Amino acid sequence: MTTSSLWQPFTLGRVELAHRLALAPMTRSRANPDGTPGPLTARYYGQRASLGLVITEGVQPSADGQGYLNTPGIYTPEHVAGWREVADEVHASGGALYIQLMHVGRVSHPDNTPHHRQPVAPSAISAEQDMFTATGPQKTPVPRELSIDDIQTTIVDFRHAAASAIAAGADGVEIHGANGYLLHQFLSPNANHRTDSYGGSVENRSRFVIEVARAVAEEIGADRVGIRLSPSMPLGGIDEGDTEQVRAQYRHLVGELAGLNLAYLHLHHVGDDELLRSFRDTWPTAVLVVRYGRSREQISDDIDAGLADVAPLGRFALANPDIVERLRTGAPLNEVDPTTLYGGGEAGYTDYPALTRA
C-alpha cells in the first residue's frame, strides 16, 4: 500500500475530503418497521464518520422500491426526520453523508413491503432468488412489468427521494444502478425483454438509468449526485452477456452519464480492467472503485494505478469504526461477525470496539 496516496486530500462535488477512503454502502436491515432509521443508525454512521465520505445502505425511494425487511426509506416526513438525526451525527463527527437511493425492482417479495403488492420490473421475469421474509425464505415472484407511465412515476419517485435526502441534511445521494436491482435490471438483456423505447438496443436499455440520473441532478444539483454501477455483476439473477456485450452497454451508458457532470462514478468492479480504464478516461469527475476480497495492503492499488480517486471500504469499516486510525497506525483489525450482518440491535452493529487508548 502506498501510504501517501490514501492520505491525500480530495474534492468530491461540494465535499472536501481529508483522505481517499470512504464508507461503502452496506445493507444492515435495522430500520424501524415503517422504514424510519432510529438512534442506533445515527450512532452507527456517526461512529464511522472519520471515513469522510459516508455512503449509506440502500434506501428505498418508494414502497415499490423495498425488497428486504427493515430497510430504510426516504419518501415520508418520518423518514426525513430520522435521516436528519443521522446527518447531524455524521456532520458533528466531521463526515459528509450521501444517501444511497436503491429501488430493488424484482428482487423483492410482497411480504416485505408496506403495501404487499407484486414487485415491479422492466419485464415480467422472476429473479428466481431466495428472499428472506418474516415467515422464512421464499422465492421472488414474477414481477409486474412497468408501463411507460409507471416508469415516469418511478423517475418522479427518485426525484422526490433525492429532494427528501437533502431536506434531511444529507450532502448528496448515490443512485444505485448496480448489483441486480431495478436500474441494473433495465440494463440487462436477460431481465429486460421490452420492445418499446426502454428495451432492445444498448441505447434503449440505458434510457431509464440516464433519465433517473438526469432528474435527480436537476432536482438537487449534479455536484451532489453519484451513481453506482457493476458491469458483469451476476447478482439478482442478472446475466449481461459476454465481455463485448457488456463493454458496448457500459461504454455507451457511462459516456452518456459523463455529460451530466455528476459528482462521482462508483464502480463495484469484478475484473475487466480494460473497461475500468475506459471509464477513467471518459469520466470527468471522481471515480470510486470497490473490489471483492481486497487485502489491507491492496486498498490503495486502484488509486496508485490511476484508475480511482477514492477507495470505499465495506467489511473493514463495518467491523472497525475507527478503520482510518487503524490503517494510519498499522493497528490490528477486528473481524466481522457474519451472524449479525442483517437485522438485530447493537450486537455486530454499534458494539465493535475501537482501539484502546492508554
UniProtKB/TrEMBL annotation:
Q: Which Gene3D superfamilies match?
A: Aldolase class I
Domain spans labelled NADH:flavin oxidoreductase/NADH oxidase N-terminal:
6-334
Q: Tell me any Pfam family this protein matches.
A: Oxidored_FMN
Top-level taxon of origin: Bacteria
EC code(s) of this entry: 1.-.-.-
Using the UniProt record, name the top-level EC class of this enzyme in a single word: oxidoreductase
Select a single GO molecular function from the record's annotations and give it: oxidoreductase activity
Q: Which keywords, in A-to-Z order, does the entry hold?
A: Oxidoreductase
Entry protein name: N-ethylmaleimide reductase
Q: Which organism is it from?
A: Oerskovia enterophila
Upper lineage ranks?
A: Bacteria, Bacillati, Actinomycetota, Actinomycetes, Micrococcales
